[in-house]
Design a protein that fits this description.
Pfam families: GGDEF, Protoglobin. The chain is of the alpha/beta class. It contains 14 helices and 7 strands. It has 2 domains: 8-182, Globin-like (Orthogonal Bundle), CATH 1.10.490.10; 212-381, Reverse transcriptase/Diguanylate cyclase domain (Alpha-Beta Plaits), CATH 3.30.70.270. It has helices at residues 8-11, 16-25, 30-43, 47-58, 62-68, 71-88, 95-111, 115-136, 141-203, 214-231, 245-252, 254-273, 300-314, 341-359; strands at residues 212-213, 235-242, 280-287, 290-296, 324-331, 366-370, 378-381. It has a 7-stranded mixed β-sheet, sandwiched between helices. α11 packs across α12. The protein binds guanosine-5'-triphosphate.
Length: 385
Amino acid sequence: MQNISQSLAEQLRIGELELSRRKRLLDFDHTDAANLLECLPLIAPRIGELVNDFYLAQTQQPEISLIIGDKDTLSRLHGAMRRYVTELFSGDYDGEYVSSRLKIGQVHHRIGVSPKLYLSGINQLTGLLETCLQELLAEHEERFLRTRRSLQKLMLLDNQLVFDTYIAALQSEIENVNHQLEEYASSLEQTVAQRTQELTDLSNRDPLTGIFNQRAAQKMFEPLKQLADQSLKPICLWYLDVNHFKMINDGMGHSQGDKVLQQLADTIDQTIKQLPKGAQGYASRFGGDEFCVAIFGLGDAQQQAQIQQFFGRLKAIKAVSLSVSLGAAFYSPGHGIEPTLEDLISRADSLMYMAKAVAHGSGDNEVMMDNLPEDTKVQRIPSRA
Ligand SMILES: Nc1nc2c(ncn2[C@@H]2O[C@H](COP(=O)(O)OP(=O)(O)OP(=O)(O)O)[C@@H](O)[C@H]2O)c(=O)[nH]1
């Protein structure tokens, strides 16, 4: 990132010391400065004509006239070039001179003058200056030769400075692009993570009812079991199946049947969401009209209360006469029996089938549950036969 509170020379770290080092490398010293200054009175009257010749030649090149673009810009360039040529013979090549050269590089880069075009212009200017000096110093060959040499060194110093600005501009463009790429990559990462999460969520859900599917239920059982083992609190697994669901489909149509399944799923989900403090669980659809619920943290009586509440809520589904058979199997940790989810499902499923056998034709809901006292609706099935 560019530090805009610093001058160009500061940004490029070209202070007095660096400038003298560069001059020394080019063997440019005070005699060169004196050689050039000595020529100023001679060349000054010729600068206007020289700059005109320079731009006449430059604008012959289509690439350059395209960049210059219009008359006003051309006239501004004439002014800038007259100042530059005057400065070349000013004999004073300090920090201010450096700043002007750096700005020239910056402007050339900004308006799109490529290094090759810049160098072709410099080559043309050097040719014109040398011809002019040769004419002016026709009688003084030795003076012409040393002035030309000094001018060559100074222009090399100028080119170094201009190219430094080109390089710095390219570096900062690369930094900008890198920065943008980094931002893009990180936003892409976030999007991918979000999409992955959305896909994972989606792959865990039953598309019709929005509650968990069988796969997700299987994944979620293990952590629930660990919780039960650590806290020595039970898990109760409900397995539910609608009684005569085929008749609902046949009588009211498949899409109405879908709605009934959705309402039933919502009712089961509500039960999970309204579990008492300390209890938790999940509701899932195992396919067709079969649902599975796992609830952690409730004792026998509290479980029975939850089942009764669930059947109470089920009465709110009024569009259809709906009855459900439910089998509920317990896992009570600390008894040395370590059932898998499949064992528990199989147990709850058999209990559900027993309940269904009682319920069939009655139109009532029926529950078969481990661990509970017998009454008319809740049949007791011994937990470990
Ligand atoms: N509307 C609808 N029906 C479905 C869907 N999936 C399965 N079914 C139907 O659900 C019915 C399930 O029937 P079963 O459970 O075998 O039988 P049932 O009629 O409920 O009878 P019992 O279980 O013996 O009480 C079948 O008719 C399936 O075609 C679904 O996503 N939407």
